[in-house]
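I have been asked to look over a protein record a colleague put together. The record follows directly below this note.
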Amino acid sequence: MRLTPLLLLLLAPNLALAWSPNGVRLTGAPFAQTVPRVIGDGAGGAFVGWGDQRDYFNGTPIGRTDCYLQRVTVAGQIAPGWPLDGLPVATGPGHQSPGDMIPDGSGGLLIVFRDTRLDVGDLYLQRITAAGTVTPGWPVTGVPIGVGPGEQAVPVLVTDGAGGAFVSWQDGLDLPDTRARYTHVLGSGEIAPGWPS
């Protein structure tokens, strides 16, 4: 039997009513949350990433952001086990903001973020499990992707089908010219053998 959209709504009335008309609150942290990114979680919910300025109230300079994630279920609730104020992905010195995100094929996701911990902006990749933890074997500060002089920006991710990703980005080393770069990170968090580091 084929289920029509109307029949699906009738079978799950409580699911439709669980969502707040004003949206789901992803965090109660103070100050600004900016630059949201969102992808499906493969189970009817979503992963949402954003830049977060909550540490401004702890004496850090205004405008400095950290990268956070949250998982929302199909019912419009924060996923069990995920921190109510969001999962910190990158909170080190400098400015961290989310870039592209893709599913990892195991219920989690890969997220690339821009980070100014060393200079004007480098790129790092992190893999997060469905339960809201860094994937075992991955560095907690992320895998360095585009790290070097000049600004690394505009990252794009494509899954490799095995828990890793192909990453492309714009390299500003030779300004005013920019160069396109490309690499392959395995599901284990290592640069694929034979690829330049």
Summary: The CA atoms of residues 159 and 195 lie 16 Å apart.
